[in-house]
Amino acid sequence: MSRVIRVVVGEIGTNCYLLHSQEEIAVIDPGFDGEKILSQVANLEGKITHIINTHGHIDHIGANQAIKDATGASIYIHKNDADMLRHPAKNLSLLMGNIVQSPKANMLLDEGDIIKVGQVSLKVIHTPGHTQGGICLISDKFAFTGDTLFFDSIGRTDFPGADEEQMYASLKKLKNILTDDMIIYPGHGEWGGFSEIKRINPFLKFSN
Questions:
Q1: Does an H or E element contain 199, and which?
Q2: What is residue 208's predicted lDDT score, i.e. its pLDDT?
Q3: CATH T-level fold of 2-206
């Protein structure tokens, strides 16, 4: 049995997710508030084995250091965003006035990679647009879509390294992969079923 727990962190409300399967826990997008995240994990039977960043912006990597220091878990990020972990200008922490330098990644991800968390297999789908190394993580029942796809919107494409044309190509790609019965867990805002998101989100209509 597996479960997904959402922990909303930081002033801009990043969705950090705890994927708990058997005795393994993956922390997905620990943007801020490391102590808050760790306190949630303390209520679970298992240990943190994975820290997975869907992309390299500060609001998704800001607590990497705290989680890694406390647990020794490995950090996973797409190879195209790996340098953002160590560079405050690239991860936008310099812009926000809160300098963040995450530990280096232990595992550099690419399209089609499989991450095993307990009994759950997460397939890495490369979805550039918000950043060059943005990813979504797809299981057979749910997907973590980071800042690529929100419930009724998409991630911004006006940051350095973003590309609107790539974003729409990534959305089209996701539409061909996700199924209506999947639960979508985005990087910000509410989660929901993909069938409802397709009906509500105007950007999915534009990506035909």
A1: helix 194-200
A2: 62
A3: Metallo-beta-lactamase; Chain A (3.60.15)
